[in-house]
Design goal:
globular, Rossmann fold, alpha/beta, ATP binding, 2 domains, 21% helix, 13-stranded mixed sheet, thiamine diphosphokinase activity, TPK, 13 strands
Length: 216
């Protein structure tokens, strides 16, 4: 990876799979508040640690005494994760891996990160959200390809009405499909290898479970 790839360590769950390690290999790291706990597990030292530190236990602070800290008040207008992303962009990020972004106890944070990821993709950034067991990639007008294990689960969730949706190399392919906003038609598909997505217009997110073969 180039020095324009940043991994943002967030406070959600993170399972250390080989796929996750591959996704973050060679990247630069910024930790957001309690997301620093993932640094030790990954064996990395972030170049910056930001947040209000309300979810950072004292022992974690002591474990990384030499990482520069950028504190913010608890009463602020953005999440710690969004602040960390802004700092990564200021440092030259073009690809962002949001690790610890999915699942967890705070559905509001997870939803906000999915929406934020689509917004970042619209600005031209390459975005991956991951928990290690689940991944999410924005889908906008154009084409993307995801290298998923055969028989693993994936879904497309529309954040708007979708037009001209194509899904190739999947158990349930689609050709020039119109997906109404809120429809569940594209939930729980099964990959047959590298899955190709084409979208004419709209905003969506592809949620994949690379280690989940329960749909077989």
């Amino acid at each position: 990876m180039s020095q324009s790839t940043f991994t943002i360590l967030l406070g959600g769950e993170l399972v250390l799979t080989e796929r996750l390690r591959s996704a973050v290999s060679g990247s630069r790291f910024i930790a957001a508040d309690g997301g620093m706990r993932h640094a030790a597990a990954l064996g990395v030292v972030p170049e910056l640690w930001v947040g209000d530190f309300d979810s950072t236990p004292p022992d974690l602070e002591g474990a990384f005494p030499h990482v520069p800290k950028q504190p913010y008040p608890a009463a602020k207008a953005a999440t710690d994760g969004e602040i960390a992303v802004s700092d990564a962009i200021a440092r030259g990020a073009r690809r962002l891996v949001l690790a610890g972004a999915l699942g967890g106890e705070r559905s509001d944070h997870a939803l906000q990160l999915l929406l934020y990821a689509v917004s970042l993709a619209e600005q031209g950034f390459d975005i991956l959200l991951t928990s290690g067991t689940e991944e999410a990639v924005p889908l906008l007008a154009g084409k993307i390809e995801l290298d998923l294990p055969r028989n693993s689960l994936f879904s497309v969730s529309g954040f708007s009405e979708l037009h001209g949706l194509y899904i190739e190399n999947a158990r349930y392919p689609l050709i020039d499909f119109h997906l109404p906003f809120g429809s569940s038609r594209t939930i729980s598909n099964i990959a047959e290898g590298k899955v190709r997505f084409t979208l004419g217009s709209g905003r969506a997110i592809v949620l994949a479970r690379p280690h989940d073969f329960s749909g077989v």
